[in-house]
TrEMBL record:
Keywords: Exonuclease, Hydrolase, Ligase, Nuclease. Residues 4-176 form the Metallo-beta-lactamase domain. It comes from the Bacteria. This is Ligase-associated DNA damage response exonuclease. Signal peptide: none annotated. Its EC number is 3.1.-.-. It comes from Novosphingobium ginsenosidimutans. GO terms for molecular function: exonuclease activity; ligase activity; RNA endonuclease activity. The lineage of its organism: Bacteria, Pseudomonadati, Pseudomonadota, Alphaproteobacteria, Sphingomonadales. InterPro entries: MBL, Metallo-B-lactamas, RibonucZ/Hydroxyglut_hydro, Xnuc_lig_assoc. SUPFAM superfamilies: Metallo-hydrolase/oxidoreductase. It is an enzyme of class 3 (hydrolase).
């Protein structure tokens, strides 16, 4: 009797299980062997017996979670043999430094697990690589037609204009510690901003790690110890949680900004108390999700962590076989 197609890979609540290899992709619980797509906390955890990831992702996991034992670096494009006649390779996902899609091959079938990804150019990480496959496991964080991210240059221009128009104030930008903060800094530099950029202390170590991996962020200074008046007219970046806490009171009448794809939704901007919402995301928007599925052209699309129903409906209307998964702990871009 012929085995069912793709029966060797299972979507279970705690992650994607590669059955013949007895290992997992981005498991929510400690596993004997785990392949990790990137360093965000909803995908990367400590406690695995063996952790396979790109060198940059392993460095991020070491910094954030103290993962060193059992760490196995896998370069982009490097093919590794797993148990049960399964091979795996890592390919750029364009999400954050070190992020990867995992290509699995077994019994003549090819499965791509994307983790998180974006298609926009990003000076802090390699671009998404289109890899043909039979099953494409895609995120759907922004899987609704309302989510169409503007060009990042427009959002950076808004930020720079707010600074220029308010020289007596500072612009305080909430940005996630891994990926978003470094991309924001790099985009400011690409736009010609050469002044020092000031950081909340919680962002410093990750920014330095990016620099160690060859990402030029220009001059960065810590807010700590700076006189309040010296920060007038400056750009300050902090974790979103610090936007309205006591730490921000040391700043000169800050213009509160938030960099997130969720800033497309006014209620989210109000929730963050963002005077200046900046629609900057490290995830694919609706058009990029649908275009990527069309470009990859898989026999099946598996949809997870996000707005699964709308993307599932799009696949159905476009005569594409698809199903929604039910994984635990995935959905938001907050990290």
């Amino acid at each position: 009797m012929m085995a069912a197609a793709f029966s060797w890979i299972k979507a279970e609540p705690q992650g994607i299980r590669i059955v013949p290899a007895d290992c997992w992709i981005d498991p929510a619980r400690p596993a004997d062997r785990a392949l990790i797509t990137h360093g965000h906390a909803d995908h990367a955890r400590g406690g695995h017996g063996q952790t396979l990831a790109t060198p940059a992702t392993l460095a991020i996991m070491n910094l954030r979670y103290g993962v060193t034992d059992g760490a196995v670096p896998v370069g982009y494009g490097e093919e590794i043999k797993l148990a049960g006649d399964v091979t795996a390779s890592f390919h750029p996902a364009g999400h954050v430094l070190g992020s990867a899609q995992v290509l699995l091959q077994h019994a003549g079938e090819r499965v791509i697990v994307t983790g998180d990804y974006k298609r926009r150019a990003d000076p802090t990480c390699p671009p998404f690589e289109v890899v043909k496959c039979d099953v494409f496991v895609t995120e759907a964080t922004f899987g609704l037609p309302v989510f169409r991210h503007p060009p990042i240059g427009e959002e950076i221009a808004k930020l720079l204009k707010a600074r220029a128009d308010n020289p007596e104030r500072c612009v305080l930008v909430g940005a996630y510690a891994l990926g978003k903060a470094q991309r924001l800094i790099a985009e400011l530099r690409r736009a010609g901003y050469r002044e020092p950029i000031y950081l909340h202390g919680a962002l410093e170590r990750m920014c330095r790690l990016y620099e160690e991996h060859g990402i030029d962020l220009g001059e960065l200074r810590l807010v700590a110890g700076m006189p309040k008046g010296a920060l007038a007219g400056q750009i300050v970046i902090c974790p979103p949680s610090a936007l309205t806490d006591r730490w921000s009171r040391r700043l000169p009448d800050p213009i509160t900004a938030m960099a997130s794809g969720w800033m497309r939704i006014r209620a989210r901007a109000r929730q963050r108390m963002a005077e200046l919402p900046l629609i900057i995301s490290d995830h694919a928007d609706w058009d990029e999700l649908t275009a990527t599925i069309s470009e990859v052209d898989p026999a099946e699309t598996w949809i997870t962590h996000g707005r699964e129903d709308a993307l599932l409906r799009w696949c159905t209307l476009n005569q594409r076989k698809a199903r929604a998964l039910a994984l635990v702990g995935f959905e938001d871009e907050d990290d």
